[in-house]
Structure formats: structure tokens, C-alpha cells
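Pilot study result, target chain (395 residues):
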Amino acid sequence: MRTTTHRRRALGALLASSALVALAACGGSDSDSASEVPTKLGKTEGKVSILAWPGYVEDGSNDPKVDWVSKFEKDTGCQVTSKTYGTSDEAFNLAKTGDYDVVVASGDLTARMVASKEAVEVNTDLIPNYAKVFDFLKDQDWNTFDGKHYGVPHGYGANLLMYNEDEVSPAPTSWSAVFEPDEMAKYKGKITAYDSPIYIADAALYLMKTQPELKIKNPYALDQKQFDASVDLLKAQRGNIGEYWSDYLKEISAFETGDSVLGTTWQVIVNSIDTKKTKVKAILPEEGATGWSDTWMISSHAKNPNCAYAWLNYIDSPEANAQATEYFGEAPNSQEACDFASDPGFCDSYKAGDEEFASKLWYWRTPVAECLDGRKDVECKDYSEWTKAWTEIKG
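Predicted structure:
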């Protein structure tokens, strides 16, 4: 797991970025009053609206056997409505509508939520289950800003490399399978990649390991030369890409039909593919991977803050967190959650609590102009530049 001591500077740089300050102006006028941190909770309001990744808020409607929402509703009286999103950019636009009380955000979104006043500081003393969370997931650059907590950890995982075992040979061990011309050529038109500007970090990570002369220390902190090299790598990859994906259901379909045979994936996708149709395997390549450590945040527009706090406490409980993370395919946020997993080997397979394994993952961050790797002599490319470059890469 990658941490820095530049949390305060990073947030200051984010607020100073002209593109992101413009986004901050889009925050609701009620955000200042909503930002007051409660010292006690009141009566629950009877409902809560949640914006989340697919697979994070399951009530049995997708699969009767997959339901941790109903118990929450029964225990708290808070009826849940939820909406899913495919990328952090989509989530940010939806969060700005003010329609949601709770938003779960990856590290490429949390800083934007804070800078634009779309999320409020939370009082973790009002969330008893927070005490059970692994210490190495707390007080990190993607959930704590200027010493203030802006949410509670959910789970964490990697952006893996998946391949069709019948079509891809030899079995890949490196990201070179999707970045090196000779290797990509064998599967031209059947390679897939995640459709988001944050995918630039995947290219930067590969270059960090294979081209040390670029001196990349953090794949989210890229100066002009490093950024250009990463963008050029993705432009060269573009001709081999069959399609980019953000909707995980579409990637499932693409692998089952054979339209895709190799590319970036999440464990939930691997778990969902019909093995009678397609035999797939996912690996953590030798270079490591980008990944996520997700945070449950409370919206500054929350109309049901007491139910929002109730949800944060519930989803951090070992039982609920085990259900959610096991279903999605990621490590849970506490050791206690392992006792509630349906698969006795779940926590071992995801290396839950294994800080050495976590050190191989570069969790999504919001790129800012003040380099996240601590450099003072150069300016790094901020997220607005990443977004512009991604449009050029895709053509």
C-alpha cells in the first residue's frame, strides 16, 4: 500500500487547480450547513439513498441468495434505494445532483468529492464498527484530508489481468501482454481495457517497472515527460483494443462471446463469467497493479444523515462487510469479517490484512499539479489533463 506524508499539500494543490476549483463551484448551497460534524445522532429518517459500485448494495433482487440490505432495513427502519455507476467520473456527476445521502468512492474520486464540497467530514466516534477496521486502511491519503476523516473504509482490491485460457498462450505473467507490440499483435482486436482517464496510471506503472530512466516513483504523479511516455504507450495500445469497458456486465458478455480474450478486469467479473462458456483466469502481474481502497462517504446534500450514519456503521460491521466484499471479490476491511465469510478460504485467497500484498497495489488517487511523490521542482499533470489526454487516446 502506498502512503505519503503530503496529504495536506495534496488537498491544497487540488483546491488550487483551476479545473477542479471550477467543479467545486458546482456544490450545493446547503453544503456549508451540512458540513457541521455531529456529536450525536438523532432519530433515523426512515430511508437512505445510496450511490455505489455494482455489487456493493445487494437486496436480493439480483440474486435471492445475495442480500445484506434487508437486515439493515429491518434493524434500522431505514429503507434503502440505490443506484450503481460504472466509473468514478460518472459517480462524481451523479453525486453533484444531490440525490444521494451516501456515496462509495474510490481514491480517484474522494479528493474531488472533498474539494468540491460534495462530501462532509464524518465523526468516526459515531461509527462503532470503525474501530474494527484494519489500521493500514485508516488515515490514508484517499480517505483523510487535513487530518479529518471523510468516510470509512469498505474493502480493497486490484485491477487484475484476465485472459481466456483456451485462447491466450503462453499464460501471461506481466502487463507486457497488453502493452508490448509483439505480444499484443497476437490478440489484436480482442484486447480490452478499463474506460477511464485513471487507466493512464496502469501504463505509468508498467513504465515505472520497465523503463527506470523515466524515474516514475508514483503512477499518479507524472511530470510532462513521464505523462507523455504513458500517453504514447496507450496510443500505441489503442490499435489493438477491441473495446474499452466501464460497464462490468459488458466485459462479462465480451469474454463469454469471445469478443475479448485478454485485458484489465475486476475479481467480480471473473466470478461472474459462465465457466461453461468461457474458461478464464485472472492474475496479479509481476509488476503489481493499480487498485482501489473504497470509502463510504456522506454527501453534503444528505437529506437523511442519521440513516446515512447507520449505513456506514452497518456496512463496516464484520458480518455485512464480509458479505459485500466476498460477493464483489475484494479483501474485507477487518480481520473479524473473515469469521463471517461463507468460504473458509476467502480471506486467505484475497490476503486480507496482508500488508505485504497490499504494498503491491497502487490505490487510485486523484492526480494533482503538486506532485504526489513529493517533488517540488516540477509540476505534475492534474486530473483535467488526464481527462483531456484520455479523449485523445481513444480518438
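One observation from the pilot: The longest helix spans residues 224-238. A full batch analysis is planned for the follow-on phase.
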